Amino acid sequence: MGNQINPSSQPNPNSQINPSLQQSSQQKPRLSFWQIWNVSFGFLGVQFGFALQNANASRILSDLGADLHSLSLFWLVAPIMGLIIQPIVGAASDKTWNRVGRRNPYILAGGIAAAIGMLLMPNSGTLVSFITPLFFGAMMLALMDASFNLAFQPFRALVSDMVPAEQRNIGYSIQSFLINIGAVFGSILPFVLTNVIGLENTASTGQVAPSVIWAFYIGASVMLGSVLWTVLRTKEYAPGINGLAELDTAKPEQNLIEKLTEFFSLVKTMPTTMKQLAVVQFFSWFALFIMWVYTMPAIAQHIWGIDAKWFDPTYLESIGSVPAHIAQAKGTAGDWVGIIFAAYALFAAIASLFMAKVANKIGRKLTYSIALLAGGIGFISIMFMQNPELILVNLAITTIEVPQGAVSLILPMVGVGMAWAAILAMPYSILAGSLPVKQTGVYMGIFNFTIAAPQIVSGILTGWLLTALFDNQAIYIIMLAGASMILAALSVYFVKEKAEQPTV
User: What is the mean pLDDT of the chain?
Assistant: First the structure.
């Protein structure tokens, strides 16, 4: 079995968390760095897959026949799946205990289901004949999002369960670091497969580029491996041990109406801090949804000079085939989205290393607000990065010719990365101290409403705004994201922190 939890013991990257120790104590024992690392390591793989989806789903759906207006509507499956699944999983995991653990069964199930979706989605054009490839691709996007959400909330709750209050900042910061390392490699993978391995990055109408297909295969494998590492290396504390509440086995089984009534009662009585954070979450996740959906068409139009008509499936159908130079430019732009998404994830990983110390020094709220402001400025500055002059760029692993404006996009990603690191860590660190220990999982699931709702609003509105107000010029919708992120930064001022965690 694993090493004992002992603050004086030497850190061991292979050490397991042993729940049999200090069972009489109601305080969680301090963990070594590597024990905290193991708790969150599976999130690296989950985020690897999630980053592949974020950087390439719009590209895949566009190749399968989606227009710019409908892209955001297809992406609605992501927050809707989160809205449905995370509260259910949160409540269920609070009441679960078996040989696998409390949170681990859901983490494992989510990883397996997401891998299946990743294997199927990029093959939408060839796997089905009874429904359209676009509709099948949307179904697989829904499956992946449902599965990612099945794993996300238990990972958050697992940190709260296993890490003592005095190590909570470092616990969530390590989780943020691993998330962003996974995002770096997931985002850049299609580019590497094209420019280093030599796989084709262009796609014919109704098909997906080979580089993207193989990236999803690799992503599924990485995700399963890292999830298994956390499940096998982290032995959860049993209910009633180290400050965790006992399972409420005496409570009779509820019917659906009773469960919904209890759920909405919890929503109504949620901690004040959660309500205040919801405003910040609205503006920040409204902006993030725009980034994931429209960065690819925005930079293809703004940097590579591709006219909006080349994203219109009706026009493409009318001309029969896409000219080779347009297909190549769209493929290169799609690969470059992976580069800049990897850049913001890398900057976020670096920021997460220092964020806990900064938060301890100047406070979580000020740290959170400054990072969100940097993200807003980063989004808006993309407008001013337009320079079509072609230059050779040495990326160590390969040399590529791209417009100067594309290279300049790395600078705004510094601010976006800072915002992303803060969004992944600060609200949970602020919130955890105000949650009842017996209902941490369900409240963490309810908190996902503050993530899903703004994305749903964004998905419904942004496609219409892009068409009706911005004449399908996607760069303007990116500037809207910047304005929204700045409003999020200002909203942090109104959040009131609670220092200690309730015991009921």
Answer: 82
